[in-house]
Design a protein that fits this description.
Blueprint (H helix, E strand, L loop, with lengths): L4 E2 H8 L3 H9 L7 E2 L5 E3 L2 H14 L4 H12 L5 H35 L10 H7 L7
Antiparallel strand pairs: 1-3, 2-3
Length: about 140
């Protein structure tokens, strides 16, 4: 059996700060194996793996609630890959929506930049006027 890890050691090994470890514990993503008599949290080596899992999933855009579900699927040996695939498909759909929204914003900014008279004064600036009127009109 490996030696229990303090919260500081877990944070260092996982490449996160102490507050992240504590926050993940508060959110129920991480549980200390035990506490010392003086109240220090002690974790097993799997805590580092859990944090790395969380950080990898966050990099793909999963929320902490979604990650919590994925972690439960990971430890439930009766779970099927189809459950994970369903969550990944839903995340992909959200990513595609965000990409479409960003493309619309890009298009609007390009259009506004084309209408801008660089040498003009700001009182005639179409970019500022559009923002002022609340009409950035993506798309």
């Amino acid at each position: 059996m490996s030696e229990p890890l303090t919260v500081g050691r877990v944070a260092r090994l996982a490449g996160v700060n102490l507050q992240t470890v504590r926050y993940y514990e508060k959110r129920g993503l991480l549980t200390p194996e035990r506490r010392t008599q003086s109240g220090y949290r002690l974790y097993g080596p799997q805590a580092v793996q859990v944090i790395r899992f969380v950080k990898s999933a966050q990099a793909l855009g999963f929320t902490l609630d979604e990650i919590s579900k994925l972690l439960r699927l990971r430890v439930d040996r009766k779970s099927r890959c189809a459950s994970v695939q369903g969550q990944a498909r839903a995340r992909l759909a959200m990513v595609r929506e965000k990409i479409a929204g960003l493309r619309a914003i890009e298009s609007t900014l390009r259009r506004l930049l084309k209408t801008c008279a660089v040498r003009g004064t700001t009182d005639l600036c179409p970019i500022l006027e559009s923002l002022e009127l609340g009409r950035p009109s993506h798309g």
